[in-house]
């Protein structure tokens, strides 16, 4: 499956003089007991965890396991509390589709603009061979041998 990077306008800087950044984002369905939400999420090779906003868990009816919440390191050495929840994830391109159940971390934030959706190693990248092509601004994902065979 191939996914086009998303283009973002930023303030020009010495490292980004064009003022345009390209980020490897994937449109992904996050499936809970109540409903499905389709979101854009950044594929982040530097993230150990797959992280979604807690507001998404509430919207799709995912029961969060507050008793198993744990600390995770964020950018700059900050720590955040991730609350685990079980979801089904699905990505598709044309006729091809991958669907699997996994546990992800949900992050509670005070401001909606602080919400993030990161597809990290646990729950996402561990199941794929990923090729990032910065020249064509495309991400190619192919299921690897770790991909769960028993799909929903």
Question: Could you explain the architecture of this structure?
Answer:
The chain is mainly beta and 152 residues long. 5% of the residues lie in helices and 49% in strands. The strands form three sheets. Strands 4, 5, 6, 7, 8, 9 and 10 form a seven-stranded mixed β-sheet that branches. Strands 1-12-11 form a three-stranded antiparallel β-sheet, with no helix packed on it. A hairpin with a 4-residue loop joins strand 4 and strand 5.
Protein topology:
Blueprint: E1 2-4, E2 6-9, E3 20-23, E4 25-31, E5 36-43, E6 51-53, H1 54-60, E7 70-73, E8 79-93, E9 96-107, E10 118-119, E11 128-133, E12 138-143
Parallel strand pairs: 5-10, 6-9
Antiparallel strand pairs: 1-12, 2-3, 4-5, 4-8, 7-8, 8-9, 11-12
Nutshell version of this structure?
This protein has 152 residues and is mainly β.
Primary descriptors:
single chain; 152 residues; mainly beta; seven-stranded mixed beta sheet; 1 helix
- How much helical structure, as a percent, in the residues? under 10%
What is Rg?
16 Å
Task: Show unreliable segments.
Answer: none
Mean pLDDT: 93
Tally of contiguous helical segments: 1
How does the major sheet shape up?
7 strands, mixed
Q: H/E order of the elements?
A: EEEEEEHEEEEEE
């Amino acid at each position: 499956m191939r996914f086009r990077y998303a283009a973002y306008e930023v303030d020009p800087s010495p490292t980004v003089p064009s003022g345009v950044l390209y980020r490897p984002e994937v449109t992904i369905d996050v499936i809970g007991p109540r409903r499905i939400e389709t979101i854009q999420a950044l594929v982040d090779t530097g993230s150990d965890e797959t992280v979604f906003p807690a507001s998404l868990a509430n919207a799709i009816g995912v029961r969060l396991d507050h008793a198993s919440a744990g600390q995770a390191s964020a950018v700059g050495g900050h720590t955040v509390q991730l609350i685990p929840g079980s979801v089904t994830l699905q990505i598709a391109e044309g006729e091809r589709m991958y669907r699997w159940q996994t546990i992800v971390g949900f992050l509670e934030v005070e401001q909606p603009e602080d919400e993030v959706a990161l597809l990290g190693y646990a729950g996402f990248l561990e199941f794929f061979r990923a090729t990032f092509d910065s020249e064509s601004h495309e991400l190619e994902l192919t299921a690897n041998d770790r991909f769960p065979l028993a799909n929903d």
